[in-house]
Task: structure prediction
Amino acid sequence: MLRFLIRRLGLAILVALSVSAITFSMTYLAGDPAIAMTSENASEAEVQRIREFYGFDRPVLVQYVSWLTKAATGDFGQSLYLKQPVGDVIFDRLPTTMMLGAFALMFALALSIPLGVVAAVRPNSLIDRLALLLAVVGQAMPSFWFALTMILWFGINWRLLPISGTDSWANFIMPAVALGYYITPGVMRLTRAGMLEVLRSDYIRTARAKGVSSSSVLFKHALRNAIIPVVSLAAVQFGFMLGGSIVIETIFAINGLGYLAWESIQRADLPMMQAIVLVLSIFYILLTFLADVINAWLDPRIRSA
Amino acid sequence: MVLKKFALAAVLLATTAMPGLAGKADDTLNWATDREVSVVDPYYNTARELLIMGHMGWDGLILLNPDSGDYEPLLATSWEWKGNTAVEFDLREGVKFHDGSDFDADDVVYTVNFISNEDNGVLTFSQASWMKEAIKLDKYKVRIELHEPYPNSMAYLSNEISIVPEGHYDDAPKGPDGKPDYGAVAPVGAGPYKMTELKSGEYVLWERFEDYYEGGAKGTPQIGKIKFRAIKENNTQIAELLTGGLDWIWDVPKEQALRMADSGQVQVVNAKTLRISYLSFDVDGSSGQDFFTNKLVRQAVAHAINREAIAENLVGPASVVINSACHPEQFGCTDDVPKWDYDPEKSKALLAEAGYPDGFTFDLYAYREREFTEAVIGDLANVGIRANLNYLQYSKLVELVWEGVPPLHHMTWGSSSIPDVAAITSHFFSGGQDDPAMDPRTAEALKRGDTTIDPKEREAAYAEALSIISGELYWLPMFTYTKYYAFSNDLDFVPTSDEIPRFYSAKWK
Result:
């Protein structure tokens, strides 16, 4: 088990490095950061001066190695636009995105797991059909449209919830629902399928024959096994939400990492873009690793694999 | 009991969820744009939002009155040109900076000499590099000397050159690279508003500066607080405006602006800007697609595009078609130049004459308002000219333009809000890296205009250059840009064409 996890961790770090290298070189395709920094009527000579001042005139490989060496010590350089250390800005905004992602995941799990369980217990019933309908609608509905619809109803028409910003916990309700609803169908389907399979298995039949109560069969025996793939999916989806919250953070003006990534791309803030990609890659690695650990805890057979 | 709990939760939710009182009720003008501002310094941030805040927080020597086109006293009470390369200013007495220090000639000398020094890495250096130095004549009198005659000098002094206290940048913190981080210095100006709070990336709060002097061109500020927020998504901005979370937004898409205007819930204004749209041709064939080296083809393109329809239907009622490589409101701009009217049949005939009876296919590059460019593509397709659209980020497109890659590029230019053709025509047609034609005739005429302060001489020289540019069709000038503003019914606000909202002169109704 330990050797398996170490091997996986090593591979994941290689993936993170590859992603950062590719991102580093690709960000140069987005445009010259020196042009983005100067005023509209700057001459080529002035742009060249800025290029030299910030070291953008060096070969990309030299810049990458220099950046990676510093990044290894926690120094991600300075944001070209915000004029602040990149690490400070990222760690200032990361908690907001983490909180949004956590709320969204909680909402998604609270909705999808019970629905999946109920749908599996009563297959082809009205509630099963409603749950499947919810899944289809959830998958078909773009998150930006859902977010704007919520703003229209809860923000403008009924004035129940704040529309933008992060002033209070209430500011996170609509964004978390919009972000979480997007992953609900997948988790719900997986829970339903897992429960259906487990409920048909021999050990469940044996447990029932031994007179174990229905709730105990359902939650103690069935759900514990059925939920293993859901844990992996939830971990991956959480990582996806951290990186993919760009749209939601943009719509609700939430000043998190997703919004920062989008803004940094637009203003060609290379140090910021490169660091965000690296940080998100590392999060993916940690989350996948965490999912493996939880699965091993849930299913002892994995520990000896 | 359960119902009671639910009702309590609903009330709690409603009361904690809604944004606090904003706008007229707490004397705070809340405005938002789509760009965050974290560096509040007029010389180390080039965003327009900072230019707007710059006018709130800092005063320059003079101020342009957008209605009359005249320069009015601000920190200077009067000024006099001493030949073509020196101007002397009498300074206002009794002015205080936000940190309580007194303003005098030393502050002007320090500011001018700091920003015109290339080593200080000022991002707006091109707007200061024309100044050689400032010399103190007495406590309230300075002379600014120029390297050479410069037509935009007064425009830059009125819009871009903000005075900071002497020694302002001297103790700048060091950045990670060991260099002074001037953008991190706490903002101190002598403007009508003082920055009191900055939450990086979220908002910047300004409060009225109670010691602001009287008698300046900016008047006495009326509104107590002005809060800027960054809200990227346009629909969210509109939702906040409609629910009172914001008092002012701009760049509202036309359809949404018209719908809001119909609702009567907010005020909607379509106002002129100094930005223009133009097509620039690859006249020398550097792109490898040499269609546009042929003047007949350039004429065919010009006759194929219905600029009136684009301006009227897509841009807004304040937009006008232009024929010169400048904005009609800029000094020296004239419409007395060769014109190319919409005439698709003539366009087809010209194409046939040029040897392309079936048209041709080429690469068109653009970066802004895709719908405007798509309208151009549609018009060109009607006469058989097929455009492959390459839609890029501005910084990437500028790189390619400097390399001579685009056969035709659809661009815009805002002249940095400078109401003078030197900020556009001289920039593009004086033989620099942006010059598509390198025509010595335009360069010579523009040099004549740029090196004198005699208005009549300047007008004559610029008219000559503009006539050559339109006649040869190096550019096809298209239309002027407009902006839709939407703001609270409680707000008394008047937009200006230089796209610098004067929040310091706004007031509540």
Chain A has a mean pLDDT of 82. Chain A touches chain B through 60 residues (CB under 8 Å). Residues 15 and 281 of chain A are 8 Å apart (CA to CA). Residues 86-121 of chain A form the longest helix (36 residues).
